[in-house]
Amino acid sequence: MAQASSQVLPATIGDSEFDRDTAVTLREAGVYDAELSAGWTIIHAVNGGYLLALLGRALGDALPHPDPFTVSAHYLTPSVPGPAVIRTQVVRAGRTLSTGQASLFQYDESGAEVERIRVLASYGDLDALTDDVRTTAKPPAIPPLSHCIGATDAPDGSRPPIPGSSAITDRLMLKLDPTTLGWAVGAPSGKGEMRAWFGLADGRDADPFSLLLTVDALPPTSFELGLKGWTPTVELTTHIRCRPAPGPLRVSITTRNLAGGFLEEDAEVWDTADRLVAQSRQLARAPRG
Amino acid sequence: MAQASSQVLPATIGDSEFDRDTAVTLREAGVYDAELSAGWTIIHAVNGGYLLALLGRALGDALPHPDPFTVSAHYLTPSVPGPAVIRTQVVRAGRTLSTGQASLFQYDESGAEVERIRVLASYGDLDALTDDVRTTAKPPAIPPLSHCIGATDAPDGSRPPIPGSSAITDRLMLKLDPTTLGWAVGAPSGKGEMRAWFGLADGRDADPFSLLLTVDALPPTSFELGLKGWTPTVELTTHIRCRPAPGPLRVSITTRNLAGGFLEEDAEVWDTADRLVAQSRQLARAPRG
Question: DSSP characters for B67-118?
């Protein structure tokens, strides 16, 4: 949205930095080459949601159905910017759903493949779903976008205290609910909640693949729990429930159980039509802090 | 618990019907033979949680770590009682966590293997976790066990209206919160909630593998939403957060988003020490009803 509000025309689905940086090239049946962009890193790690979008696009090409319905990812080793290969397998091709597996590999010094992340996913056609909706869930209580706070207007006027986070920050329209931003000024709320308006900085609207980025793009709830440092994801499962309407998304992330050095993060993503478009849950290691 | 309350000594972990029916036999490196018992069927389908426990035990043997921390299962084809083979793969063996994959196959008329369910899982050692607990989640509000209602004392004096469900029902101590039992007497609450006390009928206490059964053992929340019929699981991911204390478990299942012919079911399992021992979420097809 940042650029959309300037003189530049907004990017479109299929023609945006996100689309270019998540492009996969068919090498041979089921095998795709990719280049992990340095533009989606937090600290020195490539964002897990960005990696999920890459894997999601490869499976969308390999499977007979186009849209991710449920994607389960187990993170194995940290990814770094640079070349990668995604190997996919069609596990089952059904009438309304198909299931596939994909692994993303990078290369060690000797050129041997090192597996970074493995995914099991079931795909379908979101446009073929019924209109039946009986949702009791309510959109997150978040102030208007204009009242929320982004990286360049942090409450103390500084950048948010995430060293090296600027790469991905520059590509996101991320406006945090001030009531979940205490951590940024050294006063965490103690509640495991994070809420934000989310978009891509170049104005590209959301689609099922960008939703895979959205569910893992906010600061970790552990910051509001007073824990500094990295919260590495062990496993992240995302349900895409409908095709998002154009415009900024509302994202809420909640942690209810921090125990034994691990925590869960539940994410909900709502679109401008007040529909719950994605639900995700991850298990992550809690920071020592 | 049913038998525990009679003259029979309660079964123990390792020596119970659940342990016998989830036993896997090493055929060759990473490959296990199993026999799916008809004792854990609902209608004509083998319960998905029972299948998960079988896969969990095979991975517990194949991986260097003993306990499932997070298990992601994608259900491919309906399982039937009878012989099965589980093929496992060690994806990554780390210091505190290891990740594995397992598939359960049965055989078609020609004897060819048909894949029923595929699992990605990360294992660790629950006994090695820190005691740090900062849980804001609260145990489910459920009446005392003596005020809840089981299969043999359904409100209208009949068996619950799940044809053919008696096989698994006889093996579970399942006492439902009367406020989530309206469906059993034709008066569903319209809320996507189901709560129950859970145990194994022979008194065997819970462990991480039986928790994989527990998260998928209650009647579907869709019954309380007024929808009759089958709610087949597409994907089910379970986090085991600590080793459960002895005694009956409290289980709450919640559905917040029934839309487009699919619904999510979130399960929480609490032990007698008031600890949140397991969290799960599944994506399932909503009944047409």
Answer: EEEEEEEEE-S---SEEEEEEEEEEEE-SS-EEEEEEEEEE-TTS-EEEEEE
Q: Where are the domains of chain B?
A: 17-125, 145-285
Q: Do domains B17-125 and B145-285 have the same CATH topology?
A: yes
Closest-approach residue (CA) in chain B for A93: B76
Strand (E) or helix (H) holding B52: helix B48-62
> Among 3.40.50.10700, 2.40.160.210, 1.10.10.60, 3.40.50.2000, what is the CATH number of A145-285?
2.40.160.210
User: With contact defined as beta carbons under 8 Å apart, do B271 and B206 qualify?
Assistant: yes
- For the record, the structure tokens of A270 come out as 């709502």
Predicted TM-score (pTM) of this structure: 0.94
pLDDT tens across A193-236, in order?
Answer: 999 999 999 999 999 999 999 999 999 999 999 998 889 999 99
Residue A44 pLDDT: 78
Among chain A residues, CA nearest to B280: A281
| Residue A235 backbone class (left: φ over 0; alpha: ψ -120 to 50; beta: rest) | beta
Instruction: Name the CATH architecture for the domain at B17-125.
Output: Beta Barrel (2.40)
How confident is the prediction for chain A on average, in pLDDT?
92
- Report the C-alpha gap between B212 and B225 in whole angstroms: 25
Residues B49, B62: Cα–Cα separation, whole Å? 20
Tens digits of residue pLDDT in A69-103: 999 999 999 999 999 999 999 999 999 999 999 99
How far is Cα A3 from Cα A115, in angstroms, rounded to an integer?
36
Alpha-carbon dihedral of residues B117, B120, B124, B126, nearest 10 degrees? -50
How many residue contacts between A and B have a Cβ separation below 8 Å? 165
Q: How far is A103 from chain B (nearest CA, A)?
A: 10
Residues in chain B predicted with pLDDT less than 70, given as ranges, are 1-7, 153-165, 289
Q: Does A135 touch chain B (CB under 8 A)?
A: yes
ipTM above 0.90, yes or no: yes
Query: Which tokens hold the place of B138?
Result: 């609260």
Query: What are φ and ψ of residue A171, in 5° steps?
Result: -100, -5
